[in-house]
Amino acid sequence: MRSAWKGSTINNVNVFPRIIISLEIIEHNLETLLRWYREKDIQITAVIKGVCASSEIAELFSNHNIHSIGDSHIQSIKIMKDAGIDARFMLLRPPMRHELEDVVNNADFSLNSEISTITRLNAAAEKFDKKASIILMIELGDLREGILPTRVDEYIARICKLANIHLAGIGTNLVCLNGIKPTPNNMNRLSAIAQKIEEKFDIHLDIISGGNSANYQWFRDADQVGRVNHLRIGESILFGTDPIAKSKIDGLKGNAFLLSAEVIESKRKASLPEGIPTFTAFGDKPRIKDEGEMNRAILGIGLQDLDIKGCKPVEKGIRVIGATSDHMVIASRKRLLQVGEIVQFNLTYRAVLRLMISPYVLKVYS
Length: 366
Fold this sequence. Notes:
Blueprint lengths: L1 H5 L11 E4 L1 H16 L4 E5 L7 H8 L5 E4 L2 H9 L6 E3 L8 H7 L2 E4 L2 H13 L4 E6 L14 H8 L5 E7 L12 H18 L5 E3 L6 H6 L8 E4 L1 H5 L1 E2 L4 E2 L8 E14 L22 E7 L11 E3 L4 E6 L4 E5 L9 E6 L1 H7 L6 E4 L1
Parallel strand pairs: 1-18, 2-3, 2-9, 3-4, 4-5, 5-6, 6-7, 7-8
Antiparallel strand pairs: 1-12, 10-11, 12-13, 12-17, 13-16, 14-17, 15-16
């Protein structure tokens, strides 16, 4: 199982499907973003969850002046530490109760939003004679994790009584669930909350974490970023994209990930199925347009390995028709593909996320 998480590189050119990962492109994006954000005194946690704790990418991150490496799974953090990655680690998802001892012993920071969990984390830290550093998440509109601003004082008062908890800072998360955009209004609100906490409780917050890659436009346009001094950046590093604009950021590079899959069948077939339609294997009822006979091919990869909505064929004239668990069906407008031929795809975050966790997809670093 570990090799599936870590990824692997072998020299057998005949093994497919494979995802080729350009460390050069990822490093360019990381160095550029670090330079840009440093101009406004913002540190970066480099988020690695999209590539499933890849040791190669984690090592690349650790060789640069990042604040920490971030992942949502404590198992992934343990794997990176076991691989000898020399970095601080941030657990990006509030921990589950069975994880708390592992969080104390492996995560340098964790994001939290439940006082009951923080209290149990305190007990786990006391058991190991350690302090657990937390970032308290504040709800500012996207309705994922975070306490309501009206309850901040109550939470801080209780946290300050926990001897084995260090309140490293506060943070918020936007865009991910409901697409709520980071703006001067909600970022200024986060800064104001931080200021109020420090004044009322006579403490200093080291980290004011304003969000993720979706904060790029706010950062770019802001003359002043207030108290925000930290962001959790993954997509912009790995893909060079702005999640708000859904486009590449000028100065960054895309296409760091390239999928290659093999044609296992290629025939002229009708575009419209024949017979009585019912639900597909995944419970869908597809709407299919009659386009007459077409060049159809099947690739040796399917939905257990990737999200086809995140795949864009490199060759013009090829399009994805659909997929089952282990087959992807494509159409080729210009020619009939040959069995054994390799079809390549550029990828978005949603496709890479599943590809990198699949043990059936070879990972090749270049």
